[in-house]
Amino acid sequence: MTNIGVFDSGLGGLTVLKELSDKHKANYFYFGDNKNVPYGDKSSGEIIELSKNIVKFLLKKDIDFFVVACNTISVVAIDELKKTFDKKFISITDQGVEELIKKDGDVFVMATRATCLKHGYKEKISKLSDKKVFEQACPSLVSFIEQGIVNGRELNSDLKEYLAFANQKKIKNIILGCTHYPIIEKEIKKNLTYEANIIDPAKVLARDIVFDEDENLNIEIYMTNVNEISQKMTNIIMGKDFKVKSAYK
Ligand code: DGL
């Protein structure tokens, strides 16, 4: 049996869990810390502490390895997690970068404030290619999505602003550098005035990951704030009904 811990600050990592579990059978244990979301506006110290707590919770499930389904945690805290826990941690950002460097053209990274401040994508891409990398923090998007707002005037007006530079320069590749963003990919496309190559690192991760698969698929989903919205959004993202469990019981 392979027990995989998948975690994020909230609902976003479910986009990774969905891609993974559609392609690979295993025992998945998901943790979304939606009581403390967004992580993207927190300090590095806070993000590290919160992610250590998530890992401690999941370790009780006898986890074989972890998928860090949050770009912010991958960029800010993964080194500290690797130092603290004797486990394998797969970073969602590494997957996006590997795919990107195979493509022509420059890169527009949409991500949280914390990911942009640390230049998580920019540094990795610049080490491997001479692509120009433009980072755009999109601070309101995670909060909209966590509230169940995935379209509408306010969201679209913020998207228009966040995508203005990409539209102006027609930047060929766009990385969805936050696992929440694939949930609103349709709206993102609607606000682009040109045809961009949109990279969802979750799809790359699910395509390329190799491990000993199980015969059966099992998924348990834990959150720190189970409510009507988190329950409804989970079912929408996963494409079927799940009973979200409280991490505190
Ligand atoms: N989904 C997360 C990411 O991939 C973080 C969102 C947040 O909590 O700010 O970056």
How would you portray this structure in words?
With 249 residues, this protein is an alpha/beta fold. The chain folds into 2 domains: 3-91 and 204-246, Rossmann fold, CATH 3.40.50.1860; 94-202, Rossmann fold (3-Layer(aba) Sandwich). Helices cover 44% and strands 18% of the residues. A 6-stranded parallel β-sheet has the order 4-3-1-2-9-10, sandwiched between helices. Strands 6-5-7-8 form a 4-stranded parallel β-sheet. Strand 1 (3-8), helix 1 and strand 2 (27-32) form a beta-alpha-beta unit. Helix 1 (14-23) packs parallel to helix 12 (201-208) and helix 5 crosses helix 12 (201-208). It starts with a strand and ends with a strand. The model has no long low-confidence stretch (mean pLDDT 97). The site of D-glutamic acid (DGL) has 17 residues, from helix 3.
Find the structural class using helix and strand composition.
alpha/beta
Bound molecules: D-glutamic acid
Question: Strands of the biggest beta sheet: in what spatial order?
Answer: 4-3-1-2-9-10
Could you tell me the number of beta strands?
A: 10
CATH topology of the largest domain, by name, is Rossmann fold
Give the SSE string: EHEHEHHEHEHHEHHHEHEHEHE
Distance between the termini: 25 Å
> Major sheet: size, sense and barrel closure?
6 strands, parallel
What's the alpha carbon Rg, rounded to whole Å? 17 Å
State the name of the first-level CATH class of the largest domain: Alpha Beta
Return the domain count: 2
CATH architecture designation of the largest domain = 3-Layer(aba) Sandwich
Secondary structure: helix percent: 40-55%
Mean pLDDT over all positions = 97
Overall body shape = globular
Number of helices: 13
